[in-house]
Design a protein that fits this description.
This protein has about 170 residues and is an all-alpha fold. It has helices spanning about 5-15, 20-30, 35-60, 75-100, 105-110, 115-120, 125-145, 150-165. The structure holds phycocyanobilin.
């Protein structure tokens, strides 16, 4: 599992190069956004249960078929499994946020997920909607705490969305 710094070192070491201008710019932007990343992660950690609950409510309000008979989140067990998945996405997004790298998402979350979701009939489009709702809630809460928001905060959620959408067959 890699973070922004170890990824960069790996890339440059592979070809035996010293850091160049691009590498230094990448490092600079990672360290400059470092405090905001950690503060945003703290907001997520302190509100995770509420964020997941609120995101679930919004998701089922937007796509009520999910919790009706025949929907994938219908029955208490599957409803709970859906919220648990949302909690996984949020927790791993907070790791990726601090790492400044999506590597942890590939390794721990996305690997094999397509096969699992397809075999269980979990709708990927709706899952993506749920992830984007969480991004919106997190952004609102981070902004309300007076912490900078922006691409660095969107990235883990957008990466999950992008990768999940791509593997939707
Ligand atoms: C940390 C990495 C990780 C992930 C990501 C993960 C996902 C994951 N979600 C699962 C099931 C599930 N996932 C959902 C999720 C949903 N259904 C919907 O309609 C909604 C759109 C959505 C919630 C947003 C549901 C309902 C199930 C249960 C499906 C079933 O058993 O029929 C399963 C099958 C096994 C189980 O039920 O525990 C896995 C492995 N597990 C992991 O270890």
């Amino acid at each position: 599992m890699r973070d922004a710094v170890t990824s960069l070192i790996k890339n440059y070491d592979t070809t035996g190069r010293y850091f160049d201008r691009n590498a230094l710019d990448t490092l600079k932007s990672y360290f400059e956004s470092g405090t905001a990343r950690i503060q945003a992660a703290a907001v997520i950690n302190g509100n995770a249960a509420a964020i997941v609950k609120q995101a679930g409510l919004r998701l089922f309000e937007d796509i009520p078929e999910l919790i009706r008979p025949g929907g994938n989140a219908y029955t208490t067990r599957r409803y709970a499994a859906c919220l648990r998945d949302m909690d996984y996405y949020l927790r791993y997004a907070s790791y990726a946020l601090v790492a400044g790298s999506t590597d942890v998402l590939d390794e721990r979350v996305l690997y094999g997920l397509k096969e699992t979701y397809n075999s269980l009939g979990v709708p990927i489009g709706s899952t993506v909607v749920g992830i984007q709702i969480m991004k919106d809630i997190v952004t609102e809460q981070v902004a309300a705490a007076g912490i900078a928001t922006g691409a660095f905060l969107d990235e883990p959620f957008d990466y999950l969305t992008r990768e999940l959408s791509e593997i939707d067959v």
